[in-house]
Batch of 4 targets.
Target 1
Amino acid sequence: MDNNMYSTPQTLYIVVPCYNEEEVLPETITRLSSILRQMIEKHAIDKNSAILLVDDGSKDQTWRLIEQYFQPNHFVRGIKLAHNAGHQNALFAGLMHAKERADIVISIDADLQDDVDVIPEMVDKYHEGYDVVYGVRKDRSTDTSFKRFTAQTFYRLMKKLGADIVYNHADYRLVSKRVLEQLSMYEERNLFLRGVIPMIGFPSTYVYYSRSERFAGESKYPLKKMLSFAFDGITSLSVTPIRYITGIGLAMSFISLIVGLYSFIREMMGHTVMGWTSLMTSIWLIGGIQLICLGVIGEYIGKIYKETKRRPKYHLETILEKQSSVDRKRSHSNVWGG
Ligand code: UDP
Ligand code: MG
């Protein structure tokens, strides 16, 4: 594959998951089309580039709208999911569909909260040799302070629990075809894209933008959904919570020693009723032992859990071989000097 700056324009697909987005969709399509048009004029992307709208089982006129735009606007493509599969699954469906048709794929929300004007910059970064370009919010001043707080807490918690996610990055990103090919090997049901993409690796970089308010319509992520999203993210990326159980168990066993000592002193001083000392000590000790056991069992369940995901063990980035037929080395003009 030749990635010389603009020498061979690449096909870009913009994947947009849409759930009940009839209010914003016309504007979204207009803005994305004009970006694509400009980039095609500059020969930055191939003329077969497209906007792939994924209708996630909307209950309003979203699909009808997509069909309406499909005829006159040659950028518009659509896929429709039979039921509401949720943002991550809709996005994944779109990515997998685009994988067969494009060299570069950008995912973006339908609500125009993410600045579409950085798309050309993302594509430039791709040409510089990056496989993943994360769109990162400069600030969250337009979010409500509540949303800001909950989101911030979420990122912190994820980091603590061992999930490597990009701070202030949602699902606005560019990925290359080969990243998507690796992504398709993740066969797990609970796919948390924000956590898995960094896990795959490959050269990555960031573009920064300020996030605006929703153009129209309302958020499809009320608090309840947000909490379950956070919980899903944590439990699908790490088994660290299980380790905490073992930790608590050890702490409780330790406390049982102190309680034992304390009860013994009380008994010596004659301040206690018959049986209190043994009762106090055993409560803490048994509790501690039980939690340690749960933690150990949890470790095994964690292992089973990881096995059932059948994740790829590695991601091949470059192959250097002598036989030219299998030489799949990817050359970047800037890295390898042309
Ligand atoms: N979305 C989806 N399926 C759902 C919920 C949301 O495809 O079940 C889409 C939605 O149309 C939007 C994106 O996911 O394009 C993000 O949703 P939203 O903007 O409501 O989330 P927020 O920005 O408030 O976190
Ligand atoms: Mg939004």
Target 2
Amino acid sequence: MDYIKEKLITIGRPKAEIVKKLQKEHGDKVVQEVTMGQVLSGMKGVVSLLTCTSKLDPDEGIRFRGYSIPELREKLPKLHEDGEPLPEGLFYLMLLGELPTTEDVNFISESWARRAQNIPQHAFDVINALPKSAHPMIQFNSAILAMSTESHFRRAYLAGADKKDYWDPMYEGVMDLISRLPIIAAYIYRRVFYDEKHIEMDPSLDWAGNLAHMMGYDSEEVRRMMRLYMVIHADHEGGNVSAHATHLVGSALSNPYYSFSAGMNGLAGPLHGMANQNVMHWLQRLMDELGTHDPSTEQVREYAKATLDSGRVIPGYGHAVLRKTDPRFAVQLDFANKYLPEATLIKLVKKVYDVVPGLLEETGKVKNPWPNVDAISGSLLSSYGITEYPVYTMLFGVSRALGVLTQLIWDRLYGLPIERPKSQNLDWFKEKAGFNH
Ligand code: AMX
């Protein structure tokens, strides 16, 4: 057993005992009252999940095991003094709840580089069987499902593993799956946009650096941006669609490939991860229709207003939980101000930021008029030359694996049961409301 697994089980067993105790001895404690409005608005604010990897505050934004993004940028190991933290370090933090050393990060980097070597050929065959015009998320998810033939978890379950040991094959599967996602994503990218001219992985590189390398970007600048991108998209508490779907499917003891694939189907929705691609289409159409890359603030306002008047959402703005500017937006803006002060798209993003919150507030119905992570992430990628918008959600997905799959290991450590909330029909809700029509 490697030392990370040793640590995990040492930390995990007592916590699993606490979860059991809470269930058994405090099971009848009322934790919250739930209103009809909450249920009918998609369970907003209803506490119904146990998630330890990260926590989202409406005003402050995300904290990963207690650390904000600015703190992570300071405290997690980096390759260079002025670099960005390595996602391997964030994975370690989310898994074990403590900050990693450089040696810990190197251990994970090497483990992922080794595990990434064994992708079954049929995962690539499945991708190749799809038309190149199929959205990258279709290709990505098909490959993820195809790789479930390799599932340690499935094999261990069929072999009759003890329930309290399920976390172990889950850990093995999660490590394999995370290690392979950059290869799969880069393969799809080069297949669709670079005439199938694939680039081999470089085992000496870190996980995110390798992704940039295999996509065809070898400058230290792009690698730095990719590390930031992979860190900030990694997790957003347990109730968002991709995290919740992964957890829900995992609760049926589905293997990590099935579970993560479910999460990725959710990420592909326009109100969730696909928003990053849609922001770019929205900005591109704005520039095309106005015939300029440098529109006036008034022109941007009119364009945004026309979007709202036609009954569409402005992508990249609003959030189901956040009530302030997303710190993931703020950190990317900070990064862009430092490294890309003259980038046309970043200037446009700032103009949109100047006018859209006010317009959304004027509607009187939008609960959060501020930008989310997707309002700028595509402009950052595009400014570094990664201009193919359809791959943006897939890159989000590669990063999201870090958080949701770490939580899946913890779900099995805690021995969480199958998830089964109660549903009711309309008559039940009408009766509760005393609604007699
Ligand atoms: N533009 C226009 N209208 C918006 C809006 C936006 N950006 N954000 C919210 N609204 C509207 C809603 O559509 C809803 O309208 P309705 O009452 O007519 O149905 C009303 O405002 C109230 O919605 P809400 O309670 O403020 O938001 P929500 O929790 O229901 O939805 C979200 C949250 C993110 C889906 C929504 O803000 C949205 O559609 N934003 C644009 C898409 C986007 O950027 N998604 C990415 C989110 C981050 C992520 O997951 N990656």
Target 3
Amino acid sequence: MGLKDKLTELKENALKEINTAEDLKKINSIRVNLLGKKGPITEVLRGMRDLPKEERPNVGSFANKVRDELTSAIAERKERIEIIKISKRLEEEKIDVTLPGVPVKAGQPHIIMQVIDQIEKLFLGMGYQVVDGPEVEEDHYNFEMMNLPKDHPARDMQDTFYITDKLLMRTQTSPVQARTMEKHDFSKGPLKMISPGKVYRRDTDDATHSHQFHQIEGLVIDKNITMADLKGTLQLIARTVFGEEREIRLRPSYFPFTEPSVEVDVSCFKCNGQGCSVCKNTGWIEVLGAGMVHPNVLKMSGIDADIYGGFAFGLGPDRFAMLKYGVDDIREFYLNDVRFLKQFSQRG
Ligand code: FA5
């Protein structure tokens, strides 16, 4: 058999093998065997040495043609195998859109935030602005502008985390009162604001006290504001958050920045006013302090106390949340145990 016939036969057999190869591994091994240095084509070409000189170019170019044909047959087959592989995968990985979905675990606002949101909504509806203040506060705003000069004995009412002589972790949201009053332009109308946020005190943690807790400050300054406006506002807050059934009481109290001052208690959720360990046997839980803004506070913020007056309050959303949801230990709010928190889902 001549070399050309040998090559033709080899090509036909190789093409059969190439076109029936099922995977890339197989096609790669065919390529190496067929076209490699020890492969049959190289072998045939070696036989050219025995051919007469004039026949060599003819056979040589035929051999190159065969090699090119096989190379492109291999490339085509390779591509085909890839396509088959992809369509097989697509077939296998088809998504069944009728299968039920995997539920996604959604978070929710913390129970204290839920109370703050509720109170914010109530006040926004009455035209109050919501104001933010810094948690790292100046002694000047936290105490002095609130009518608590240095060495005033009432500073002991709020044991303080000091950072420097002049800087502290605010013990109350009341400094936002001074910050807002200083900036207010009364030609544009009365001042009505609330300010929710975190406050810090060196209190010993127990069932109703935490060293970090929340307050919502409220402040209204205008002409002719009376104690009756304050009482009506406090009653509205209590009814909105707790419903009609829970009672509130006002007790005379003292704050350096209000005169007169009151403290507001809500009847204990646990014993319904009978007295228990949560309310320390009083039947009541203190939830907020309030009063008529002291003239000194107005004056220090540049407001004419002969024309303007108002009321202020500072309520504890943590205590509100305890009463509203029947939580008998404030520390639960700060442990962030998901099993506890998810009991109060807004989604029901
Ligand atoms: C004040 O902080 C005043 N700034 C409130 C105020 C504002 C009075 C404006 C008048 C005018 P007091 O220290 O009582 O007041 O705290 C207010 C409320 O914060 C309390 O009624 C209580 O609900 C809450 N509270 C106080 N200490 C703690 C504590 N350690 N843990 C949790 N809640 C607390």
Target 4
Amino acid sequence: MPKPSTQFVCQQCGRTSPVSFGRCPSCNAWGSMVEEPLEMPATSVPRHKGVPASHPVRLDEISGDAEERLNTPISEFARVLGGGVVPGSIVLVGGDPGIGKSTLLLQLAMEMTSSAYGSHPVLYVSGEESERQIKMRAVRLLRMENGEPLTELPKNLLLVTETNLDTIMEHIQQVKPELVIIDSIQTITLSEFSSSAGSVSQVRETASRLRELAKSSGIAVFVIGHVTKEGVIAGPRVLEHIVDTVLYLEGDRYQSYRLLRSVKNRFGATSEVGVFEMRDRGMVEVINPSEAFLAERLVNTPGSAIAVTMEGTRPLLVEIQGLTTRTNYGNPRRTANGLDINRVLLNAAVLTRRAGINLTEQDVFANVVGGLMVEEPAADLAMSVAIASSLRDMPVRADMVLIGEIGLSGELRWVSQMIPRLREASKLGFKAAVIPRRTSHAEALPSGIEIMEARSLQEALRLSLIDHESSHPKGK
Ligand code: TYD
Ligand code: MG
């Protein structure tokens, strides 16, 4: 029997198989197996007997206590990286096409090369855009003051349009940059591999070579990776093991806010979040995100409540909206935007059965303002109160935040990191917070914000909804 010359590779997780599956047995992705030529990369290095390539070193004799970092100008970016760019590290920046990855990294490159930040030489390799296109974008990104560009184009930033990894390596040898940006990994190919650009074997192998480069030379490498849900191009999962840090740029394409989230970081805390706004002059840091997310809020209108959600170590205040309308025919619909649909279903059921808010003949819409995705159960209470507020046509107290998870019996459950959440609400001028009944009083809750403990959803509704007749709820 002749040896097979092809294999099937899952484009999501990299599982290989001699036969195709409709659904990948490892990661359960549908239709993700693609036939690729079977190749044996020449990765085995000839061994020289007697001369080991590495030496074990005593832990206390290794120099350097803390990881050195390059001065990173964009502070929201530095925050997500855990304090700045680490030399010799490889960072994957993933996200949907068009979300702003190239823009953000070009901005980073331009700022790092400026003299104010140590003029680090940077090489920007693009497999997608021509040098001219990148220059046009760079001109657009220059900071303006009184209608004039503030700084001239950086001299230490070199651009090249190239997709062949060997050629890119040569450029790096020549230019000797401190930072290399590869835009994007799906366009880069190794000529000894016959599979097409963006296939799992190409992506995995190019990323490994780039990692070797980073580790051996001390150059920091940023790799952009497109993520599509269809699994047409190599998913980021095969890359996640190879790189030191994985950042995702997320956001609603039709909204201006973007979240840069770290999901893996060898040099800092994970799930740290940086918040940006996409403007016509690039990505602008949002220094006080809670304030930004609440900027357009209408107070004293029914169907709106404020939740405090944790994004990594950072508490964020977000407005959750609920709307109920009578179902015209058929089954009532539940629609979630920025919220987990299952939590909306659960909360609607609990409202109906446990809190006297009858939603059986109501269509329910629940929405997070600002294009943010809130999946935390801690937002249950705000979501439920917003929906109840819409049905009863009673607004929620404008200066109140609602924090808590709701159980099936309509009970409120404690959530983690309550103190930073309350502190953030207080900092933004909120005067009251409805939280679950405390079981332990070990930690003192922040002063400056009135704490209202509620055991059940029903109690929370009584505390938060303003009755038109009696003008104020109990407790104020
Ligand atoms: P881009 O960085 O090319 O996205 P990605 O590399 O993730 O595919 O961003 C593309 C979008 O950003 C495009 O729709 C235009 C918009 N944009 C702005 O709104 N302002 C800007 O200053 C720039 C450069 C782009
Ligand atoms: Mg791009």
